[in-house]
Amino acid sequence: MNNKYAIIDIGSNTMRLVIYVEDKSGRLKEVENVKAVARLRNYLNDDRTLSDEGIKILINTLKGFQEVTRFHKLSTVKCVATATVRQAINQSDILSAVRENTDFQIRILSEYEEAYYGFLAVVNSTSFHEGITIDIGGGSTEITYFKNRRLQEFHSFPFGALSLKKQFIKGDTPTNSELKQIQQFVKSQFDSLPWLKKKNLPIIAIGGSARNLVQIDQAMRQYPLSTLHQYAMTPKDIGQVQSYLKSLSFDKLQRVDGLSKDRADIIVPSTEVFIQLCEVVEPTTFVLSRKGLRDGVFYEELLKQFGRTTFPKVMEESFQELAVEYDIDIQHSLQVTSLLMTFVDKLQKIYPIDLSSSDFQLLRYSSFVYNLGQYIDSESSSQHTFYLLSNRTIDGFMHKDQLTLALVASFKNHATFKQYVQSFQDWFTKDEQKKLRFMGAVLKFTYCLNATKRNIVKDMMVMPVDQETMKMTFYCDQNWQPEEYQVEKQKKHLEKVLKQKVKLEFKSHKEQMMHIG
Questions:
Q1: Is residue 460 within 8 Å of 472, Cβ to Cβ?
Q2: Which of 30, 119, 386, 514 is deepest in the core (most CB within 10 A)?
């Protein structure tokens, strides 16, 4: 059985073939991504016919994709087209030519469908419950407003990066006066939508222009993480990137780190669109979503069988995916989480711990993926855990939250924590680092209480002995020697963060129950 799925996205600027494989969790994982810069928008004439040359480029590109899909033995391939084909008055000729000369049949997405699939991708891969989405294509720009993870408003503007260039720019890059014209035009377009004004909500951007903007910003900052999804910027950041790009000759622009060479002539007008949207919306943040229209199409397909269009909780879906991918023992993780919550609850009754509700949530998530790196190598589990969790895309997590997860879940000792956090010193205050070390030490200590995965600890007590010492008693229903050995080894890390001596005691749970009785 072939568990591969494919989609061809015929955009106005680029065409892409993406192949996915269904993993053990039932989620689709991208395995092939073939891009062609067709720039079909440039072949849409003033009378809105796609020229013969444009149709020829379309067919030849699809034939190239066809060789790949045939190699992978894909009999059914979704093939969707957006603005340029949608706006062409010779649609029927285009569809017939594709049907007669290739394996594919094009589905032309309406303005609503193009906007809807972008929205669907955002709400199923981020934790935003309300926001504005933007997708700048070559020939159109889709804007949506969603609230409570439901689509409220949408609009498709008949301008995109390529059409703006064609309409306003004579050379390779815009002059100051040409950019001023673009600015005024785009502002007037956005001002026509009352539901955009002063929303003070996150803007979530999808598509190639947004991705390149983020990549440039990361390169300029020498950003220490490799992930793009849910990277956050401010309107000021976007302006600084644009100022940098405007200062470069076209030759130098083509060599900018993070910028695809084929987007060098359209990146400045694209950033202007983002800037003008920020002027109107006055956003709380500007965030990239790596998931876009193609993902939205498959989210609809994937969730249809469950009778819904969105995942109830994006983060929980992400952890389920991690569990499957890295063979996490869920029962063991749940036991560690239960022990951790009990231990912290008893500890904070005698020790001043300033943990917020979000800190407790972080502890729960961290306990689920603690020691995840042993999937690669048990001896260097901590290093692999930190790298995987800090650099792997985890839907629903902003980058700082993902880094805190990685620091807590990979905790080994104070020295390795300092090593991991070294590149992120300006991300955390000293007090925040101290709290993360505490959470990591508590998690590692608790993890050892279930070292043999037998769930033997049934109860516990934490009592002060004096001002410098606390006593921890653990009641077990089976032989506790392996757990006692591991906990004794690890208690020094707990003592360092607590600044207290810890006296350990293991007892029979049966005796405890008899004593209570």
A1: yes
A2: 119
326 and 375 Cβ atoms separated by less than 8 Å? yes
DSSP-derived pairing of the beta strands 286-288 and 232-233: antiparallel
Task: Kindly state the helix (H) or strand (E) to which residue 343 belongs, with its residue range.
Answer: helix 330-347
**Token code pair at residue 466:** 């004096």
Q: pLDDT averaged over the chain? A: 94
Which one, of 140, 187, 197, 129, lies nearest residue 164 by Cα? 140
Are 453 and 329 a contacting pair, CB within 8 Å? yes
Q: Distance between CA 507 and CA 517 in Å, rounded?
A: 16
Residue 23 is predicted with a pLDDT of: 77
Please name the residue ranges forming H helices in 30-144. 52-71, 83-87, 91-101, 111-123
Average pLDDT score over residue span 145-169? 97
User: To which H or E segment does residue 188 belong?
Assistant: helix 176-191
Q: ∠199-204-207 over CA atoms, to 5°? A: 140
Strand partners, 288: 205
Mention every residue, 6+ apart, whose C-beta is less than 8 A from residue 194.
none
Query: Does the CA dihedral 53-55-57-63 come out positive or negative?
Result: negative
- The DSSP code for 109 is P
Query: Do 238 and 295 contact (CB within 8 A), yes or no?
Result: no
User: C-alpha distances in angstroms, 10 versus 100, 122, 392?
Assistant: 17, 20, 28
State how far the alpha carbon of 468 is from the alpha carbons of 284, 344, 465, in Å.
46, 19, 8
**HSE-up of residue 359 (Cα within 13 Å, Cβ side):** 17
Q: Residue 10 is encoded by which pair of tokens? A: 């015929």
Cα–Cα–Cα angle for 332, 335, 336, rounded to 5 degrees: 85
Beginning with the edge strand found earlier in the chain, give each strand of the sheet holding 107-108 in spatial order: 28-36, 15-22, 4-10, 77-81, 107-108
Element (H, E) at 144: strand 141-147
- For 465, the 3-state DSSP assignment is strand
Q: Give 58-79 pLDDT, tens digit per residue.
A: 999 999 999 999 999 998 899 9
Query: Which run of H or of E encompasses 133?
Result: strand 130-136
- Residues written for the chain: 517
Q: Give the three-class secondary structure for 262.
A: helix
Rounded-to-integer distance, Cα 242 and Cα 216, Å: 10
Instruction: Kindly give, in sequence order, each residue whose CB lies less than 8 Å from that of residue 236, ignoring residues fewer than 6 positions away.
Output: none
**Cβ neighbours, 10 Å, residue 300:** 16
